[in-house]
Description:
Blueprint: E1 11-14, E2 20-22, E3 57-59
Amino acid sequence: MKPEPSHRAASHACSVCGCVYDARRGDPAAGVPPGVPFERLPADWRCPRCGAPRSRFQARDSVEAGPPTDTTFDPLIPGVCQ
């Protein structure tokens, strides 16, 4: 999996817990480097906070309601995901 330039949404939010996948940061804990767009994540990738499947994520611009969607990752702050 390698990074690529994208005009797609840079971030997607989990509709279950509000965790945000930001393509600019990737998901290093899951082996996803920065620059990998959401659409190119492995089929078995899951929300790092609640374990929800990719199908439960929405492009961040289209998230209208639900939990807050913080973009700062700090494992010591509950409710904040990458």
